[in-house]
């Protein structure tokens, strides 16, 4: 038996520093823009970095630091930086590594916002990106590497297809090329997988999702595994290995060793760009983290039950959930996600967009929303929302058809969720029946009013709404 505390214990107690002034059991919310210096010398030393107290919240804040310690611990990283959103976390992580002329290799299946960050924002700064179509194809990752490749990027569980990443495989392809692997672990959370333990070097999160869970505020985290050896090829990381006047002529690697990247990302990138989270949001985030494992366990169990149920429905042509034995990602899920394949996944209706529209408009408990990892169940049609900016061909290549619906399954009672999804299917049957009716009427000029009634009478009853849902 190991003495190491379990996940649930760490998510509640990890990184806690007792309040020696008041004894507060829950750390305070330090809504203070700046911090007092005792005297002239202390001010000088804090600016010089030789006294590590606080100066100004953009550079660090005790409430934010409390969350940073906890997430770093849960992810088994060396250190974390809390920022104001997931997009800010990706931006800081990339800018901590990249400069004009550099190149990134990324999985194609990433969040559209991060794809835009890479292609449009970093692209305009002279940073190039190539996408690997099938992230399981390690030869494709290796083939995309150039001399100026400075980062590999992928998500542990991309949405909406729940196509699990081979973290160790991609890390082992990156490292011989001298490239660190950045992994977005938003949808898995450290409860389902800790990418650093499988070779990832940097982990980013949209903390707005499962880490918070309550859907009450945005946040993001960059976690440095502290494992990448920046001094192995100093010419590739000159911003970390060149002398800095602000460090008394030392380089970041000289002064901070394995912490060089995270210190640079905090002091030179994040503090300059300024995506500082409000300490109040950090407090909300910490409240969420304390129940992370309990929620994710329930999310995952609900999602698997729903995926299995959807898989049995005649109106559904496919279900993209790696927990299903039929999934091409099932083996990877068993290897990396033994506690569950998460709760964001997709299914496809045979009836295309009309069926998706009928389904989504019929549900009453699922919230029609673009958000993920909330305690509430959420539903969205990617082809007309998140992926509307892609061409139909691009969407088809990614398996995002017009009938595909994304779910982020919440922690409600699964029977209620299934009843709600049944409402969606009943509406789809109604649409199909109405379509048939219209076709028959056109073909024979005879009205067939009984078709819809007959279809709906096949034992699929639509229960009366019994919940008042006011959060749309
Ligand atoms: C996987 C992933 N990463 C990052 C983000 C961006 O997070 P945020 O909305 O907190 O900026 C999202 C948002 O949906 C996401 O799904």
TrEMBL record:
The keyword Transferase applies. It comes from the Bacteria. Keywords: Pyridoxal phosphate, Transferase. Its cofactor is pyridoxal 5'-phosphate. CDD domains: CGS_like. SUPFAM superfamilies: PLP-dependent transferases. InterPro entries: Cys/Met-Metab_PyrdxlP-dep_enz, OAc-hSer/O-AcSer_sulfhydrylase, PyrdxlP-dep_Trfase, PyrdxlP-dep_Trfase_major, PyrdxlP-dep_Trfase_small. Belongs to the trans-sulfuration enzymes family. This is Bifunctional o-acetylhomoserine/o-acetylserine sulfhydrylase.
